[in-house]
Design brief:
alpha/beta, Rossmann fold, 2 domains, seven-stranded mixed β-sheet, four-stranded mixed β-sheet, 15 helices, 15 strands, about 35% helix, globular
Amino acid sequence: MRLRRMLALFAVMALVALACGDSGETTTTTAAPPATDAATTTTAAPPTTMAPTTTAPPAGDTTTTTAEMMDLQFDAGFDEETGTIKLGVLAATTGPIADIGQSLLAGHQHYWDSVNAQGGVNGMYPVELVIRDNAYNPEQNVVVYNEIKDEVLAFSSTIGTPTTATIFEDAAQSDLLVGAGSLASQWALTSNVVLSLGADTYFGQFANAPYWAMEIADPPVMTDASVVGIIYQADDYGQDCKNGYDFGQANTGFNAAYEATYAVGDSDFSAQIGGAQAAGVDVLFICALPSVLAPMVGTMAALQYFPAIFGSSPSYIPILNGALGGGDPAAGAALFNSFPYYNAGTSAPWESDVPGMVQMRADWEASGAPIEVVTAFYYFGYTQGQTFNEILKVAIANGDITKKGMLAAVDAVQNVQLEYGTSPAGYGPTPKDRIPTTDTGIGVVTTTDQAVFGLELIGDLFSAPYMADWDPAG
C-alpha cells in the first residue's frame, strides 16, 4: 500500500503534462470513414517541415534487362530501364506523434533497404520510396498525397486513420492501393486499403482479450463473478474496440456492467473513472491513446482504485513509464503492474528468437540506426513493408504491375507466414477475407532496458475459437 501511495503521487504529478501534452488533431469528415485511432487537435494544418524525401535503391548493378521485363505490364511508378518500382509513403515525422511516426518510418525503410540489398523484389526489382511528411494532419495529408500520387505505383505505408480517411476514396478512384495506416477493421470494407499481414485489428484485440482472461490466463483474470466495464474514445476507433468487446461478451457471457465514452480533447476523466469505481468494476477495458491512458491511470491511482485493465494496442507507449513514475521508468512500470495493465495486440518481443524477429533485428543492425528508434511502431512499419512485398510478388507473377494489377493481386496473397509466431495470413475477395489475421497477444508492461518494446508477451499469440465466426460486413 505504501508503494501504491508513492506511485499515486508520481502519477498525479504527471497528469498535467500528459493530459495536455498531445491531445491530437481535428479529423476531416469524409463519407463513412473507417475507424479513427488518432486523437485530434484544434491547430491549423502546419506546413510541411520535412523536405520531400526519396529513399533510392543502393548504388550498383540493379538494372533489370528489357528481356527480363518484356512480358511485364506497367504504368505509373515503374522505371523500364532499371526495373525500379516507386512506392509512396505518407509519414508523420513531425507533429504531435513525431516519435511514433519516425519509428514507423524507420522500420519501413529498413525493411526495403534489406530487400534492395538482395536486388529488390524477387531479387530483380529495386524499390524506391517517395516519402512525404503529413505531420499527422488530415488536411496536410491531402496536400502531400496529391504531390506524389501520379508518380507512384501504390502507397505502401501510411499512418493513422483520420489521415488515411482523407485520401482513400480518391485513391480508389485512381486505382491506387494503400497500406492501412491503422488496425481499424472497417478498412476491410474498402476495395483498395489493405490491413497489415502482421497485426490484429482493434476489434480482434478486444474480442480476443475476454477469452484470454477467462480461458487461458492462469489464474483467470476474469470469471463469471467479475464486474466488467469499458471506457472508449467516442469515435470510430473507439467504436471498433467497443464492437469487439461486445462480440467477446456475446461469446463468453462475461458480466458487462458499465460503459462510458470520452470526447477527443478531454483531459479530465474523473467522471468516467469514478463511474467505473462506483459500479464496482474490477476489470476495465480502455480503448484510448497514450495521452488519455496516462491521466486515466493517474486518476485511478489517486483514488486508490486498482481494477485489472485491458488496453488496446495504441493506448500504451514506453514513455509513459517515466512520465507516470516521476522520471523513474521502473516506478512507472510498477504502477502499471499494480493494477495490472494488460496490453492487447502485443507482438512477439524484439528480443524473441522467432525467425521474423531475428531478421528484423539484423536489418536494424545493418541500418546503423540507434536502438531508440525501435518501438512497437517500428514493427508495424516493417510489417507494412512485408505486406507490400507479398502483393508485389503476386503482381509480378501475374505479369501486371499496373495500378489495377496491384489491386487484383491482393486477393491472391494467401497463407503467408511472416514467422512472428502468428498463423499464416492472407486476403481474399470478401470483407471477411480482407481481415488477414485474428491472432493477438497479451503483454504486461516492463522497462525498455528489459524489453525494447516496453512490453513482455505472456505466452503465445492466440485467436479465440469464436473469431472464426466474425464477419466485419455483419
